[in-house]
């Protein structure tokens, strides 16, 4: 009884320890958070530092553009001067025509002023209002405002380029993890099937229905299936790390949107090519840069032109005026820079070269976008063809496995035929999942090249086939 009781206590102790270990394992490894593709995209948009940086840059460029809207307006200012001065006047600088003291004229002859020198001093506090208004700048102001607007457009296009690049990477990582998970399931099914086949081979060997060599062949196939499962499990772990990194979270993520295929025709190649040349954000960014460079040319040309401005001032304290000050003043001035320390011809030529550089870069970007759209469209069609061919092979592979298993159990077939049939079925299922992944990725590449990545979810909802 004591031994039985002690045995029972040991069993309870080990059960309790097992429960504690399982609980600790559950705490140490938090469950993966399920996320649809649209939820993952929303999380990416919220967390991505590169997108936040691009948004800040775009907001800054817009603020710069808005800050220049008043360049055509007059400039008003208030000025307060406190100063002391001393000034000497003699007969060589000015003649005294008349002189009065307390309102009474003093004869100049009585003073005998043949030559004189007068020293004046004054301490003054002058509150002034000043104004200036550029009436004509040769186009410099207009060029500055348009250049700032083009820079804001470029920042907006770059923001869209960053967002679309992130969307493409999300498709690659999100559905890449789905592919890895699907392959893991298939490898597990293959491993389970190989273990079952090995058990059957062992039983049949004991009954004398199969040879030892056939049983060993089943063992080798089972070991190979185990290695394939281990490799697939490693791929899933890596895919989870990659997706979590893109979403900027330390928690594992479990995608719930399945791999898909669209069998119905999508838009024509010409539609995507036109979109690539017109809506691709990289192309639009460089074209905005070209427009900014063109305004730079106009600004350099404006440096050759005269500047016309209106100006004025008003003194609020008449008692503090100096001898040469005025109560108020208004006028128009013209300023023309005849000689500039900077070679304006070279500056103008440099600005034109910048335009040429931007134009060539824009054409190059259009060619790359065009080629990317064509390649992705062809890749999409190729992935669809591969998927449809594998669909037709799937039923044949399943039927072949069923026939080989029946033959082996009846002693009419050999172990190699069963393992080959099971491996062939798994390979078809794996290749089918890979083809679906390639379809999804090529669709994303096509939309990315044509500047339509925001339409990926809409295409996803048109799916004809969902991979379990």
Automatic annotation (TrEMBL):
The UniProt keywords, alphabetically, are:
Cell outer membrane, Coiled coil, Membrane, Signal, Transmembrane, Transmembrane beta strand, Transport
**Pfam families (UniProt xref):** OEP
* Subcellular localization, as worded in the UniProt entry: Cell outer membrane
GO MF annotations, alphabetized: efflux transmembrane transporter activity; porin activity
**Major localization class:** membrane
Q: What is this protein called?
A: Transporter
> Which Gene3D superfamilies does this entry report, sorted A to Z?
Outer membrane efflux proteins (OEP)
Q: Which SUPFAM superfamilies does the record associate with it?
A: Outer membrane efflux proteins (OEP)
Q: Name one GO cellular component term.
A: cell outer membrane
Q: Which family does it belong to?
A: Belongs to the outer membrane factor (OMF) (TC 1.B.17) family.
Q: Which residues form the signal peptide?
A: 1-33
The family database entries (InterPro entries) matched by this protein are listed as: OMP_efflux, TolC-like
This protein's source sits in the domain of life called Bacteria
Coiled-coil annotation reads 380-407
């Amino acid at each position: 009884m004591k031994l039985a009781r002690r045995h029972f206590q040991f069993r309870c102790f080990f059960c309790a320890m097992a429960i504690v270990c399982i609980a600790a394992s559950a705490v140490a490894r938090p469950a993966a958070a399920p996320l649809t593709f649209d939820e993952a995209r929303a999380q990416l948009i919220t967390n991505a530092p590169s997108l936040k940086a691009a948004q800040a840059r775009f907001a800054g460029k817009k603020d710069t553009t808005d800050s220049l809207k008043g360049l055509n307006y007059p400039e008003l200012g208030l000025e307060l001067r406190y100063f002391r001065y001393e000034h000497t006047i003699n007969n060589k600088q000015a003649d005294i025509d008349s002189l009065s003291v307390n309102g009474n004229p003093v004869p100049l002859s009585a003073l005998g002023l043949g030559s004189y020198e007068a020293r004046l001093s004054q301490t003054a506090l002058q509150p002034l209002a000043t104004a200036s208004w550029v009436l004509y700048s040769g186009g410099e102001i207009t060029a500055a405002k348009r250049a700032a607007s083009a820079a804001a457009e470029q920042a907006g296009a770059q923001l869209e380029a960053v967002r679309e690049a992130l969307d493409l990477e999300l498709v690659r990582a999100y559905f890449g993890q789905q592919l890895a998970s699907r392959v893991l399931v298939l490898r597990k099914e293959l491993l389970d099937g190989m273990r079952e086949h090995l058990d059957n081979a062992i039983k049949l060997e004991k009954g004398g229905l199969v040879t030892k060599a056939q049983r060993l062949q089943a063992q080798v196939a089972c070991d190979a299936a185990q290695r394939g499962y281990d490799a697939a499990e490693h791929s899933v772990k890596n895919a989870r790390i990659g997706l979590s990194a893109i979403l900027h979270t330390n928690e594992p993520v479990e995608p719930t949107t399945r791999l898909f295929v669209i069998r119905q025709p999508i838009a024509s190649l010409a539609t995507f090519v036109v979109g690539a040349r017109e809506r691709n954000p990289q192309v639009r960014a460089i074209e905005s840069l070209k427009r900014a460079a063109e305004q730079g040319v106009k600004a350099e040309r404006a440096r050759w032109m005269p500047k016309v401005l209106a100006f004025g001032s008003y003194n609020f304290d008449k008692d503090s005026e100096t001898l040469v000050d005025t109560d108020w003043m208004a006028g128009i001035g013209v300023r023309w820079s005849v000689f500039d320390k900077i070679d304006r011809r070279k500056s103008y030529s440099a600005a034109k070269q910048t335009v040429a550089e931007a134009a060539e870069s824009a054409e190059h970007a259009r060619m790359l976008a065009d080629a990317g759209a064509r390649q992705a469209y062809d890749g999409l069609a190729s992935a669809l063809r591969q998927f449809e061919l594998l669909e037709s092979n799937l039923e044949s592979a399943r039927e072949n496995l069923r026939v080989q298993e029946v033959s082996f159990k009846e002693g009419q077939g050999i172990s190699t035929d069963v393992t080959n049939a099971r491996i062939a079925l798994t390979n078809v299922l794996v290749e089918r999942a890979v083809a679906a992944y390639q379809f999804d990725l090529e669709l994303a590449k096509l939309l990315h090249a044509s500047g339509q990545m925001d339409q990926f979810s809409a295409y996803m909802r048109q799916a004809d086939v969902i991979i379990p």
